[in-house]
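Q: Second attempt. The first request was missing the SMILES, so the protein and fe (ii) ion are both included now.
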Amino acid sequence: MGNPRAKNDHHPILSFVNRESQDLRPNPKLIGDLKAKESMAQLHSHPEVNRLLSLMWRKDTDTYNHSHRVADWAQWVGGQLGLDSQERVELYLCALLHDVGKLMTPVEVLKKPGALTNAEFAVMKMHSSDSGDVVKRITDLAHLERPIRGHHERVDGRGYPDQLSANQIHIFSRIILVCDTFDAMTSDRVYRKGLSKERAFEELERFSGSQFDPDAAQAFIKAHQEMDAGRAIFLEDDKEPKVA
Ligand SMILES: [Fe+2]
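A: Got both inputs this time. The predicted holo structure:
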């Protein structure tokens, strides 16, 4: 099998070192907030976070990489919505661990190369409460249970696992859902090609107010469009974003 780390630069032990030289995810330099960035780096050396990410990487590299993309986008959207540095670090961590409950999902369901049956989907849906249960057992992460558990709740109350609605859903959960769904929509699957970014934006808008928090969806779209237009967004001292 060889050294698996050599095949994947996203291995958690190497991840932050390599993040600076990789062009696979949004550039962390876009977040001009050194304090938050340093704290996020420290998260990767947290023994329990590192252990969970290692397990995730070993079980399903796609979920591992997905979680990193979602985490980068989430804290970026959080900045757009006025969250402060500490909140963005916690949001980043929630997003990084939002799917950690998939460690308990049977591989044949998790990696099924096709649409899930209803029964399989019911098993898959257990991952959000399982993710909450995992972090709840870790003393200094226990307070993140609620936002992690709620990352599949919808603002219209038709999500899971608790059918919460609107402001009952933690703001972190609402942000993560937008980033999570965008990544799922734009990623290729064995059985279908991913949507273009533009089509995915349309879907975020279409389901804004039913599935998605409208503010989170708009912040996500706006930030992407600014970047695509070649105008990098810098956040300084948690003030209004400045367009360079
Ligand atoms: Fe999920």
